[in-house]
Amino acid sequence: GSEGSTLMSYFSKNQIQALKPKITFSTLRDLQCPVLQSNDLQGKPEESCSTEELFEWLGAVLNQVSLDNKSSSFLSTYCCPEPNTVVEKAFLCTITGFIIPEKIIQLLEQLCCYFGEPKLAYWLTLTVHGFADSPVSWRENEHGFHKGGENLYNFVIFRNLDYWLQMAVGTHDDCPP
């Protein structure tokens, strides 16, 4: 009836707006970055940082936490792991919305093109967060919120196209496949 068609037009108008991802760009200047070696997951003193150190650093950068270890900071005394290097310019792009896996693969492919000329970046990352209150997590199993609703994975891609894949899930969730 007419009620059904009114509902359909309401949802089609509003869903189009809801599904359009929001994109924000920012440039981080003089950013301290961990030194990474694609074949060294554990890191080596004075040579490279480990995957865990990178993951922690990335969390600080994505949440715009200062990396200068000031004792006067009430938020964080975190500092970039050693060894590190200062990158003059780093680009941070955040896409918020409902993004299908095919689009994520497309994004990865486009990011890899960044290693073409000029070869400025040694590595780059792509982090995909599931919604904290998503009803399902990995393997279509129920997702437990508990404390933080962790539900994410992170690609670290190197210039030689080696990559690391890091995954994080909540305490009571099924591990990823």
Short description:
The chain has helices at 2-19, 51-62, 101-112; strands at 22-34, 84-96, 123-129, 151-158, 163-169. The chain has 177 residues and is an alpha+beta fold. The longest helix is centred in the N-terminal third of the chain and has 18 residues, at 2-19.
Describe how the helices and strands are arranged.
Blueprint: H1 2-19, E1 22-34, H2 51-62, E2 84-96, H3 101-112, E3 123-129, E4 151-158, E5 163-169
Antiparallel strand pairs: 1-2, 3-4, 4-5
InterPro entries: RNase_P_Rpp40 (IPR013893)
GO molecular function, one term: ribonuclease P activity
Protein name: RPP40 protein
Descriptive report:
Pfam families: Ribonuc_P_40 (PF08584). GO terms for molecular function: ribonuclease MRP activity; ribonuclease P activity. InterPro entries: RNase_P_Rpp40 (IPR013893). This is RPP40 protein. The protein has 177 residues and is of the alpha+beta class. It has two domains: 20-97, no CATH class; 99-176, no CATH class. The chain is 24% helix and 27% strand. The chain is built from three helices and five strands. Strands 3-4-5 form a three-stranded antiparallel sheet, covered by helices on one side. A two-stranded antiparallel sheet has the order 1-2. Strand 4 (151-158) and strand 5 form a beta hairpin. The longest helix is centred in the N-terminal third of the chain and has 18 residues, at 2-19. The chain is globular and about 65 Å long. It starts with a helix and ends in an 8-residue tail after the last strand. The mean pLDDT is 79.
